[in-house]
Write a structure and sequence with these properties.
The protein has one domain: Thrombin, subunit H (Beta Barrel). Helix content is about 10%, strand content about 45%. The chain contains 1 helix and 11 strands. The strands form 3 sheets. The chain has a 6-stranded antiparallel beta barrel. It has a two-stranded antiparallel ribbon with strand order 1-2. Strand 1 and strand 2 form a beta hairpin. The protein is globular and about 35 Å long.
């Protein structure tokens, strides 16, 4: 029996993480995203099997984020994020690293694989307010 993959935290649909792409390139060279993203800088703690590091979000959506931090991890790794918005209790998320960027803008693009409904709703409201 083949690998069923994982259930999307928001939709409950199954997907294969190795095939999941948060950003796709259109034939004209422009990017397409599944969800709107907003530039927002919130403190974040990233926990990996090799240790914990502090960083900040550069942008965020309801399904993922770009996290700037000095620790680089490998694509496909699972990390635990604790995001600290200024007007909301800390948000704990299990995420999969989709891609990594080297210095000088070291960081990683992550897909949220486990997030509470309340925190997902909060992020949805943040994105909606910022894009109106």
């Amino acid at each position: 029996m083949g690998d069923r993959g994982k259930a999307d935290a928001r939709t409950g649909q199954w997907f294969n993480p190795s095939e999941r792409k948060e950003i796709g390139e259109m034939t004209d060279g422009s990017e397409r995203r599944r969800n709107a993203r907003v530039n927002i800088r919130w403190p974040i703690t990233v926990e990996t099997p090799r240790g914990t590091v502090e960083g900040e979000t550069a942008n965020i959506s309801t399904s993922g984020a770009y996290v700037q931090c000095p620790l680089t991890v490998q694509s496909g790794e699972t990390v635990t994020l604790t995001i600290s918005p200024h007007d909301h209790p800390p948000i704990k998320i299990i995420a999969e690293v989709i891609w990594v960027a080297a210095a000088p803008s070291a960081g990683m693009g992550v897909f949220f694989s486990e997030i509470s409904n309340a925190d997902s709703s909060y992020l949805d409201n943040v994105v909606k307010r910022a894009t109106e």
